Amino acid sequence: xxxxxxxxxxxxxxxxxxxxxxxxxxxxxxxxxxxxxxxxxxxxxxxxxxxxxxxxxxxxxxxxxxxxxxxxxxxxxx
Length: 78
Description:
Elements: H1 7-19, H2 25-30, H3 39-53, H4 60-69
């Protein structure tokens, strides 16, 4: 669980996923949105995980499209 970690470290995890999501497969498989303490980070991670499960690229543009298209869905991840 990431709650003991600082927000900058959580941001680093999300940034790493967007830079090279293939190398971050463990994080995408092992973490869940609620492991992040910030609601925005939870939504970003949920979107990244969804794209990963759909075998889609995870990058800034794809994430932006996903978050805009499905904004309401990421609040129901539990």
